[in-house]
Amino acid sequence: MAQVKKDKKAKVKIFTWKGVDRKGAKVSGEMEGASVALVKVHLRKQGINAKKVSPKGKPLFGGAKKIKPMDVCIFTRQLATMMKAGVPLVQAFDLVGESLDNESMRNLVKAIRDEVAGGGSLAGALQKHPRYFDDLFISLIDAGEQSGALETMLDRVATYQEKSEALKSKIKKALTYPIGVICVGVIVTGLLLVKVVPVFADVFSSFGAELPAFTQMVMNFSEWMQQWWFIIMVTMAGLLTCHKEAMIRSAKYSDNFDAFMLKAPVISGIIHASIYARFSRTLATTFAAGVPLVDALESVRGAAGNAVYAKKIAKIKEDVTTGIALNTAIKASNAFPQMLIAMIAIGEESGALDAMLEKMAIHYEQEVDDAVDNLTAMMEPMIMSVLGVLVGGLMIAMYMPIFQIGNVV
Questions:
Q1: What proportion of the chain, given as a percentage, has pLDDT over 70?
Q2: Angle, helices 268-288/135-147, rounded to nearest 10 degrees
Q3: Which of 250-259, 307-316, 381-390 has the lowest mean pLDDT?
Q4: Distance CA 66, CA 349 (A)
Q5: Cβ atoms of residues 282 and 300 within 8 Å
Q6: What is the mean pLDDT of the chain?
Q7: CA–CA separation, 24 vs 15, rounded Å?
């Protein structure tokens, strides 16, 4: 019987309808249902005489929006606020679902709500959607349900997610701006070489004089670009695709890339600080939630975001399991700064480890923020200089023969 109900539920669709109400006014809308007949029955109960009912068509382009981590973050914060206000969990799901703009997210919330309303636990309902809720999220919610402090745990999880997303946003900001400007510069330079330089080449061919060496070099490069630009673009797209696939399919390639990023010039400091911030924030949140230290370190390992540090944290976990103090195990890993180790030692001795880790998380998050601002301020003049050299160099190369002719005249 349960299987039959599950199958029927899976066949529920969205229908659009048009009809007239009791007053004879034309009305229309959308309704979920298993069939056209059932939708008409529901509308009839509401006093609406349905003239036309048809399945809602899928959009030709695009489709439903994807569920992003920020959508999950907003959902968690809203649910935490509802729970702290005393709203029952199932009703809180209804209110949160109605406020969401993303249809995919609304469907996800509805699925979780139905599971909870059917008698299941919230952690169990979330566990059925691992694509959007990771092990750390689920373990914290489970701890909150077991301790009877779900609203408090939801608030902590929401705060953790907000801080994590803010940190990711800062790192993306540091990388996106220079990469975007450089890409625009390369595209503009390519267009000049392929479209503008050939026009000058036709003009120069009528001079019958020898071109300056710099101009001739640009002309040769322009001819090469005209012949091979398509292959160059395909090759670049292929390399980018291969990189993405290798990051997913090859653990060795992914580990080597993570190791390279830790040594990359300019941005390596930001990456290190962001890992320290995630380590401190995740460990503080899990430890404050009452999660055992060994289990908390497993969650921290998954949230590290870098294979090199994930292996270091796994070794720290092994050492802590054998009875070694956390600060001693971290110090032996040679992966974290001395200040963080000292603060953890103080926290262990004073019994306020979560408070010390929280302070260190705030410190390193601020360090990332400052580093991003400094990097942006430093990169702007450098990028403008590079673009100026590229575009200005092309213009000089094109006008040098004209200037020489003017001098001769």
A1: 92
A2: 20
A3: 381-390
A4: 46
A5: yes
A6: 81
A7: 22
Residue-wise pLDDT for 344-368, tens only, equals 999 989 888 888 998 998 999 888 8
Contact partners, residue 50, CB within 8 Å, separation at least 6? 17, 18, 19, 39, 40, 43, 44
Q: Average of pLDDT values for 51-69?
A: 70
Distance, in Å, from the CA atom of 215 to the CA atom of 398, rounded to the nearest integer, reads: 6
The CA distances from residue 392 to 38, 188, 372, in Å, are 70, 12, 29
Residue-level length of the chain: 409
Is the Cβ–Cβ distance between 52 and 117 less than 8 Å?
A: no
- Scan for tokens 């890993």, then name that residue: 333
What is the Cα–Cα distance from 340 to 220, expressed in whole angstroms? 56
DSSP 40-75: HHHHHHTT-EEEEEEEPPPPSSS-SPPPPHHHHHHH
Q: Are 106 and 71 in contact (CB under 8 A)?
A: no
CA atoms within 13 A on the CB side of 51: 9
Q: pTM of this prediction?
A: 0.66
